[in-house]
Amino acid sequence: MSAALGIDACEGNFSSKKYSNSVAYHVDQTAHAVVRYLFSGKEHPSVSDSIDGLCRLLALQDSSPQSTFSSFFKLRSLIFSNSAKLLDAGALQLIDARIDTCALCAIDCYVRCRDQIMRLRMDELKRSTGMLERYRSESRVGERVG
């Protein structure tokens, strides 16, 4: 199926480097993994790892979930508008289901990472509040003694 659609042309070395532009690097890696997964007849364990890596990065940014996940849903219309004549209904159904799987995997990872970030922020807030309370109580004790 992939040879008929020229999916092998997506493979290649892209100019974005892992450390100089990590978001572009992860977008490239995830796009390749997702395209390979969508158009192959077999499971690719690397697709969930790629999506996981990208979502970890995106969870750190202040973008909305809608902008974060819109590319997965735009992918559906892009593939269906360009490949509907080349693929049979069964193949399109499989691709549609795989897009849903990728999007759900991304949402799951994103929510898990955002939850972890929130917990870390809350813990940091509790620690800093505790330090302020200790400082405040120590200064009161010093005022009473002096």
Structural class: mainly alpha
N-to-C SSE string, H for helix and E for strand: HHHHH
* Tally of strands: 0
Radius of gyration based on Cα positions: 23 Å
Compute the average pLDDT.
81
Specify the overall morphology: elongated
Task: Tell me roughly what share of residues is in helical segments.
Answer: over 70%
Uncertain stretches of 5 or more adjacent residues = 1-12
Strand content: under 5%
| C-alpha termini separation | 84 Å
Largest sheet: none
Separate helix tally: 5
Offer a quick outline of the entry.
The chain has 146 residues and is mostly helical.
Description:
- It contains 5 helices and no strands.
- It has helices at 2-5, 22-39, 45-60, 65-83, 89-145.
- The longest helix has 57 residues, at 89-145.
- It is mostly helical and 146 residues long.
- Helix 2 (22-39) packs antiparallel against helix 5, helix 3 (45-60) packs parallel to helix 5 (89-145) and helix 4 (65-83) packs antiparallel against helix 5 (89-145).
- Helices cover 78% and strands 0% of the residues.
- The radius of gyration is 23 Å and the shape is elongated.
Describe the SSE topology.
Elements: H1 2-5, H2 22-39, H3 45-60, H4 65-83, H5 89-145
Helix pairs in contact: 2-3, 2-5, 3-5, 4-5
